[in-house]
Design a protein that fits this description.
- The chain is an alpha/beta fold and about 325 residues long.
- The protein has 11 helices and 13 strands.
- The strands form 4 sheets. The chain has a 7-stranded parallel β-sheet with strand order 3-4-5-6-9-10-11, with helices on one face. A two-stranded antiparallel sheet has the order 1-2. It has a two-stranded parallel ribbon with strand order 7-8.
- The longest helix has 26 residues.
Length: about 325
């Protein structure tokens, strides 16, 4: 397992992290023996970061991670999140403090390594979303999180960059956060672009990674398998779509186009109960220009945008793509 510098924190973290969310679902849905085996396997392979949130299984993920990590001798990094309700009569400061206190109790910890905003940042708050003002104003989320850091409840602060890219970049440029969870995968790598290309109609994350780089913030690539559409053709019902202008059927078609354009001779899946394992039997290096033309014919604009990234990266095998995602 390779390690990478986690932005300006200077932590040395594994390229891959163990996610405790709904799509994989191990910490939420699996039996205890499976959970133990998964955590043990991750640690043995060199993974040193576990990410969770109160909303993952309504606390089941945090609670499971708490007792699982209490059983092992290693002390990996742990991150969790906080989401607020802007319509609540409870102050933002109080909501943040209460949420983190409850998370630490479930996790059986006095401190997490990273506390992240889970609410999507939009131009205007609505429902579960917040605005940049809710984060940056006096008494806002940033103030509340900094207070908890001063109290020793977290070491570093982060945010989830799944909302409006301009509003999110405003928060990033404040310099008050150390890390961002950024949407990035083979179907939609737009967060790595400086600007969205003409005609792009899917979720637009352009400018986010560049803004993080300017602040020396760590980038945690999330949804790297596009809610499992790039991992398996088997649908579990846990394929939640979180980004704007993104549809499930489109994700499935684009995933098919990705594999077809990579000239995969055969992909085999072994189904064992609810567990699905993908084994890559054969993959070939492709000519990026040829792949671009083929993808365009299969998936339209989304395919074009994807293979524009292929040309820039110069990476030509599926194995290369998979091993190249994770922390930056």
């Amino acid at each position: 397992m390779k390690l990478r510098r986690f932005g300006r924190t200077d932590l040395q973290v594994s390229e891959l992290a163990f996610g405790g969310g709904r799509s994989g679902g191990i910490l939420i849905n699996a039996d205890d023996d499976t959970r133990r085996a998964a955590v043990r396997r991750a640690l043995d392979l060199g993974i040193n970061w576990f990410d969770t949130a109160p909303q993952y299984g309504d606390g089941k993920s945090e609670k499971a991670l708490g007792w699982l990590l209490a059983e092992v001798p290693e002390t990996p990094f742990v991150s969790t999140k906080v989401r607020i309700d802007v319509a609540s009569s409870e102050s933002l400061m109080s909501q943040v403090e209460r949420s983190v206190t409850e998370s630490l109790q479930k996790l059986r910890r006095d401190q997490v390594d990273l506390l992240q905003i889970h609410s999507l940042i939009m131009p205007e708050a609505s429902g579960r979303t917040i605005s940049a003002d809710h984060v940056l104003r006096d008494g806002g989320m940033a103030d509340a999180m900094e207070k908890l850091r001063e109290q020793g409840m977290t070491r570093f602060l982060g945010l989830t960059a799944l909302g409006d890219n301009r509003a999110t970049i405003e928060v990033i440029k404040s310099g008050r956060f150390d890390a961002a969870q950024v949407y990035y995968n083979l179907i939609n790598p737009s967060s790595a672009w400086d600007t969205a290309m003409s005609g792009w109609s899917s979720y637009d994350g352009s400018g986010i990674m560049a803004a993080c780089g300017e602040q020396d913030m760590a980038v945690m690539a999330i949804r790297i398998f596009a809610a499992s559409y790039l991992a398996t053709p088997v649908r579990t019902g846990r394929e939640s779509i979180l980004t704007a202008n993104t549809e499930a059927d489109t994700e499935a078609r684009n995933a098919d186009a990705v594999f077809a354009a990579l000239d995969m001779e055969k992909v085999e899946y072994r189904v064992n109960g609810t567990e699905v394992e993908m084994r890559i039997v054969s993959s070939t290096v492709i000519d990026p220009t040829t792949a671009f033309v083929e993808a365009w014919g299969r998936s339209g604009g989304a395919g074009y945008s994807y293979f524009r990234w292929v040309i820039q990266s110069g990476v030509g095998t599926l194995q290369g793509y998979i091993s190249g995602v994770g922390f930056q």
